[in-house]
């Protein structure tokens, strides 16, 4: 495994592991024993960067993922970087599969969240603490001030913003230096590339979630793929509909062609493409399978030249694609 630096000094594996899908949004939670073993395998493979959040869970156990990650990684705590998030909860009254988000980053709420996350993770500090979504009622400067206090107190060592825009990044960074943003990014979701200049200017890392467009770019899914209707967000994502799969045939053909030339898988090419774009960019694909864990780690060893990336970008600009899942809507509390 190769390693990269986020911000000024947070060293992480070049490919991280998004742990959400073990507990949330991809069907019923996976078997605890199997996921505990999978997380241990990840450490053995060289993964050092693990991503969770206080809201990744089920109605029965809203904090399932933090508890799982904390317990599984406890034997390796001095070897790993754990990122978690605060600042949202779900509108449980909604009948939608993908329930709307309710942001809440009041200082007292953040204070309660960090203490509870520390307990669930079984640790005395959080390595990277993200505001999960902006709160329209709490200025980001106020949030950054709380982060500054938590860093002084040793409860967190670095902080970041998720799904952030340039203005928010600049305002937050001016109060307390931001180590990383965590925004959606993939070959099908490139709208945050416009942030690259400000990230380079301020020395801020980019952690890419959904780097395989929720798994679609692994090229493992087709028109007949089925997902659990009430617990799997993919059941309502446009790229997985029969029409979406058909629209994306040219995209998948492009990725498969590049993969054949690199003796790689489509998923590896999708990850390698972003790794080769920027040295401060770290994807965090999720999985429940050991073979996919190994496959994703191998993406860091695939080299694309600057010219190859440029050609791919031009093809992505012109190729027909379906809509892609762009995130869960926020509601004002």
From TrEMBL:
UniProt keyword Oxidoreductase present: yes
Quick one: a GO cellular component term? cytoplasm
Task: Look up and give the organism this protein is from.
Answer: Parablautia intestinalis
Native organism taxonomy: Bacteria, Bacillati, Bacillota, Clostridia, Lachnospirales
Q: Name the keywords, alphabetized.
A: Oxidoreductase
- Describe the location of the NADP-dependent oxidoreductase domain by residue ranges: 15-314
From the Swiss-Prot or TrEMBL record, give the protein name.
Aldo/keto reductase
One MF annotation (Gene Ontology) recorded for this entry: oxidoreductase activity
**CDD domains xrefs:** AKR_AKR13C1_2 (cd19078)
